[in-house]
Amino acid sequence: MEIVKKYFESLTEEQSACFERLVPLYREWNEKINVVSRKDIDFLEVHHVLHSLALAKVITFRAGTRVLDVGTGGGFPGIPLAILFPEVEFHLVDSIGKKVKVVENIAAALGLQNVRVSQARVETMKERYDFVVSRAVAAFPAFVALTRGRVRPGGTNALPNGIFYLKGGDFDEEIKPYGRAVTVYQIRDFFDETYFDTKKVIYMQVVK
Fold this sequence. Notes:
The protein is of the alpha/beta class. It has one domain: 3-Layer(aba) Sandwich (Rossmann fold), CATH 3.40.50.150. It is built from seven helices and seven strands; from the N terminus they run αααβαβαββαβαββ. The termini are far apart. The model has no long low-confidence stretch (mean pLDDT 95).
C-alpha cells in the first residue's frame, strides 16, 4: 500500500498495518462474495482506497465527529477513512445484505472499533450525523433528497456539517440548483494518478 504512504506520510504503525492488510482481505472476500468488480480488484489501491481518501485532503475530521457512509458497497469510502481517523465514529450502511456481511468481517478483521455496519435504507433511518459521505450512488439531487434530515446543522469541524460526495464526469447541471452551498474539489489537485483526472469531491453545507 505504498500509494497511500505516498500521500499520507504521517501514518502510525497501526494505520500502516491496516492499509497493508486491506488488499489481501478484499481479495479473499471477493472470491466468496463479489463486492468489487473482477476487473477492478487489481486496481483496488487506487480506484477504491486512495479514491476514498480524497475526502481527507478536503477535511480532517475532528475526534468525536459522526459520519454516515451511505450505500457503502464494499466499505468505501468508510473503511479507509475509519483507518485514517480512528477517533471518528463511522456508520456504514447498505441495503444489500451480502455487502454488509463483507464490510462487517473486514472491519472486524482490522479491529476497527470506530466502525458500525448496518443493512438499511437511508430513507428509513432516524439518526443524525455531522457528515454524510458516499461514492456516487445516484444523481446528486436524488442523493440530497434521499439523505434529507440525516445531517444535523452546525458542527465543530473546519467545514460546517454537510454532505461529501465522490463523483466523476461532468455534473454541472446536477449541482446548479444548489448555488454557493456547493463546493467542488478536483481530486487531480491532490493525487497524480491519471485515474483521478475527471474525479471530484462535492461538498455541500447542510443548513437545516
